[in-house]
From TrEMBL, chains A, B:
InterPro entries: ACO (IPR034171), ACOX_C_alpha1 (IPR055060), Acyl-CoA_ox_N (IPR029320), Acyl-CoA_Oxase/DH_mid-dom (IPR006091), Acyl-CoA_Oxase/DH_mid-dom_sf (IPR046373), Acyl-CoA_oxidase (IPR012258), Acyl-CoA_oxidase_C (IPR002655), AcylCo_DH-like_C (IPR036250). Residues 275-436 form the Acyl-CoA oxidase C-alpha1 domain. It catalyses: (6Z,9Z,12Z,15Z,18Z,21Z)-tetracosahexaenoyl-CoA + O2 = (2E,6Z,9Z,12Z,15Z,18Z,21Z)-tetracosaheptaenoyl-CoA + H2O2; tetracosanoyl-CoA + O2 = (2E)-tetracosenoyl-CoA + H2O2; hexadecanoyl-CoA + O2 = (2E)-hexadecenoyl-CoA + H2O2; glutaryl-CoA + O2 = (2E)-glutaconyl-CoA + H2O2. This is Acyl-coenzyme A oxidase. One of its GO terms (cellular component) is peroxisome. The active site is at E421 (proton acceptor). It is found in: Peroxisome. Residues 16-133 form the Acyl-coenzyme A oxidase N-terminal domain. Pathway: Lipid metabolism; peroxisomal fatty acid beta-oxidation. One of its GO terms (biological process) is fatty acid beta-oxidation using acyl-CoA oxidase.
Amino acid sequence: MNPDIRRERENATFSTELLTNILDGDQEKTRRRREIVSLVCSDPDFEHEDLNFLSRSERYEAAVKKSAQMILKMREYGVSDPEEIYCYKSSVHRGRSEPLDLHLGMFLPTLLNQATPEQQERFLMPAWNLEIIGTYAQTEIGHGTHLRGLETTATYDPATQEFVLNSPTVTSIKWWPGGLGKTANHAVVLAQLHTQGKCRGLHAFIVPIRSTSSHKPLPGVEVGDIGPKFGFDEVDNGYLKFANVRVPRGNMLMKYAQVEPDGTYQKAPSDKLTYGTMVFIRSMIVGDSARALSKASTIAIRYSAVRHQSELRPGEAEPQILDYQTQQQKLFPLLATAYAFQFVGQYMTQTYHRITGDINQGDYTELPELHALAAGLKAFTTWAANAGIEECRMACGGHGYSRCSSLPDIYVNFTPSCTYEGENTVMMLQTARYLVKSYRQARDGQQLRGVVSYLNEADRRLRTQPVSAAPQLDADDLPGLVEAYKLRAASLVALAAKNLQAQLQKGKRQEDAWNSTAVDLVRASDAHCHYVVVKLFSSKLEEVQDSEVHSVLATLALLYALHGISQRSGDFLQAGLLSVSQLPRVSQKLKELLARVRPNAVALVDAFDYRDEMLNSVLGRYDGNVYENMFEWARKSPLNRTEVHESYYKYLKPLQAKL
Amino acid sequence: MNPDIRRERENATFSTELLTNILDGDQEKTRRRREIVSLVCSDPDFEHEDLNFLSRSERYEAAVKKSAQMILKMREYGVSDPEEIYCYKSSVHRGRSEPLDLHLGMFLPTLLNQATPEQQERFLMPAWNLEIIGTYAQTEIGHGTHLRGLETTATYDPATQEFVLNSPTVTSIKWWPGGLGKTANHAVVLAQLHTQGKCRGLHAFIVPIRSTSSHKPLPGVEVGDIGPKFGFDEVDNGYLKFANVRVPRGNMLMKYAQVEPDGTYQKAPSDKLTYGTMVFIRSMIVGDSARALSKASTIAIRYSAVRHQSELRPGEAEPQILDYQTQQQKLFPLLATAYAFQFVGQYMTQTYHRITGDINQGDYTELPELHALAAGLKAFTTWAANAGIEECRMACGGHGYSRCSSLPDIYVNFTPSCTYEGENTVMMLQTARYLVKSYRQARDGQQLRGVVSYLNEADRRLRTQPVSAAPQLDADDLPGLVEAYKLRAASLVALAAKNLQAQLQKGKRQEDAWNSTAVDLVRASDAHCHYVVVKLFSSKLEEVQDSEVHSVLATLALLYALHGISQRSGDFLQAGLLSVSQLPRVSQKLKELLARVRPNAVALVDAFDYRDEMLNSVLGRYDGNVYENMFEWARKSPLNRTEVHESYYKYLKPLQAKL
């Protein structure tokens, strides 16, 4: 092991193992996760060349091969618990998306949730046995987050008792579904249902798209891959165009809404039924943000511990770059953010499971709040992780730009989460809608509960407290900082609501007023989410028994909170929560916290417990032996397979003769 | 043409042609640029398949082919003026880097500047005729920006009158030089010169690395490609390892320093001689930032004009997404930034040329200031453009993630500029060093000149002006805002200098004190650069004659300045340049400016005048016909060349049989 990184580990003040258990949930969960990861990593059937050295077609092929193996092996080993499936799957694919993702994660669950018993009978076993490989075809070339705008039509023909699917415009071509391009032979297609001369809105249809024997596209179906993307090289995101494709009446998923043989339409009893899945997926994305950022921080911090550069003191050895304050300033707030998001992710999963119980009892009381929270936190965490991964990459200098660092891969595979499952700005505005509504309810005397209860006093507080009455914010007092975040959120929600009101009073229509205030509304949602994250991080500390682990996490929580205040100091000053004279103290305290995190930085990323195989990063190796392995990696890369590249003979040699 | 985008152009309030001339310099320059771009775009020898559909090896080969053609054609057409060469070259390679970049941009100029007449005789014509293809091998696996740390050795052996080159450690392997991996047969190698038992520091040597007849590596030379990167797929960045490679004494570049036959060392008369090139390259990078961001804004704004989504008013048609305030808030400040950086780039080029005249006369007076400015602005503009390109991509939703948008390519090919030619944080600290030095000079009574002259009063002003005396900053008054930026910079430079002083007074060593204040120092540099950008944008307005163009540029300048204030409001509040009660006015004004830019947004990006061939973006097409062309592009992509991918037969079909 590299002596620098060994010394870092020796100097840590806490047990990484205890912290790993906290991140996993408990000791047993850590054990089981490691067991599964081990099972995969030691399995020669999952070995293949570094994906960075393969063409896109080869990468897709490697992924199909692994997915096929994975299905067989999970059956063989009896891996069936959803959490364990997730763990096994992400070990196999190293956290990347894969061609069967939508089959497993959307097609099968949709059948389970929206198909009638008869339909389940017909489709479920074949799908389980991969005779039917499905995808979920929702977004179109012209519409993403705004579902009502989708244009694909399914028109019922009572004469033959069939639905006729069409893509009436270029913009109606289905676009982006994973696994659609080459892999799937069926799709759940979201289409506007037309029957008895009326449009009945979006419904889901099971549509065969490729022959189950030859795998060739069926008549009327034009289907293919949408071409190379920033990342997701293993996934065949596809397009799908229908020209009078007929499916039997029984292929509309009819558990809720129905079309009778004569074309009579029966609508679904409630539209909240698909609500839960959306909330669930967005909650899961919060966890994805945490994982992506924790991987990136692991790589950047380990590398910064073994990289020596420049000189601090003339004549002395070059310091580890982790000793530079500017490097700490880049990486440690991101490390703190990764921890914060891990805990927020845990909270979201727990809350979802808790509320699911209520929902199954028909109690939807808490759903709107969870829905608003999931939307906002999805946006808040993905944006922060997205920018943070790139900061980590750039903090590794030139070598971060090499594919051997894995940082480019982490970025390109994570960044779509800012867009999919609800475009982030749209998500922030959804949260804002809930906040403004809550604010108005509170103003009108209603007593709010849950996370927005702070709005009960927002209006009164803002009217009574002059700016000069800024409390002496204490940079060491985490509960006090949580309170400051809360009041900042209250102040910005109130401000957005008032600006909105002012637009309405000018006679603007509701929608125009909303659009003219959108910037303020997003800002309010952002402050709300920021408050929730700080609060959850702070609450998590209360659960931590071990005093050494508690101490290091408390430092991170304080760093996270103060860093946010220094980045948005204008907000805190504007809300009267901070005075100008306190700013130097905030800056000073931040620098102290960087120094305090420094000795534990490597141990803190070790606690994320990513095996080298999962990181796949030369810079982030556990043993710190970066340079020799970088050289090895380069030597194996495709352009070095021949001593002289053929372009020399084709273009350079002839040119030399000519000149 | 798409009717939305036609309407946008019809509604513009100014002549794009006039603005294009301003961006190019004058009407004649616009004409000549278009002529050259046309020459390249209509030349069938430069046609090839979309690079996104090629493997890395094919991309490298396509680039070599184009570079070879380019050399021939530039001779044929007599393109020899440096600006015209630049224009021709970037038209051929669409602004991308290419395998001969370092031959043309570093190897040849180094020969011209540092070789003796005898050496020029020997190397220049063969290099001009590409018998010698060179690269510039400076950075090593273990050292980048910190040049003194380089470890490659060149030891003089008087017995044979040769230098013996060695890579004594893994970290000393040359790493990253473009064209080194496969293309070059010679390298200018930077190595620590040892002669007569002493190390004499870094010197440059011409080292043959591959046979000029077979192109195979020469004995003792291990050379290859460093493997795939985030971008730069056309460039063979390489590694180079020496084991006792001998070159004749005459291969050390000896125009300045010399080694005599007996090994006696004569040092160079001045170390400022290589200073100029560095400043020049960093100044050029400011222009690169402007171009990259203007391309990205062009794509995002044109696409936002043709993309319709969601509903503002129930029952009405879906609006162009450019009508959403949140979309304007994302894109218009970036558009303003692209303009600001264009003008800063022009200024840097002009200043460099002006000062070069002085330098050639032996007058180095202005060089330190230009050096500090180039370092800081290189960092400031590349960071802003880097983040801005990604904002543009994400503002295009899912389709921005497709390679057909070209936004991923712009990003991955631009982002290394944050690292190369001086890592950005190191650059900011270099600028800070100059600022602190200037501040101390001013405090000690020296009268500063040039751009830092504002520091003459920084100290006095901060001591005399209490925070409560905040002037009533006027959101419409651009000169007033420039003044505010100036005072903010002064305040942050003073703050950093004082914090540094406080550390020294605690008894810390100079270097440790510097490191403990690094975060403040970077912040001060950032504020300084921000001030310079705002000031230069404002000054540029004075040159603009046409009142309509003036009006639209003035709006952009105001937007740029106010957006910066709102983003860093804490700084302005802290410096007493703004009061809390003014913040709502700043927000309100910003929203008004977004609305004012809106009708001219498409015309403003049209004025950047990128031909479709140069943008290579389906989303950014001039005619706005996005969707049909996206579909066409996808259909042509590699995975669609066969109806059924071979992995189906290899893995999926057998699996279906097993389950």
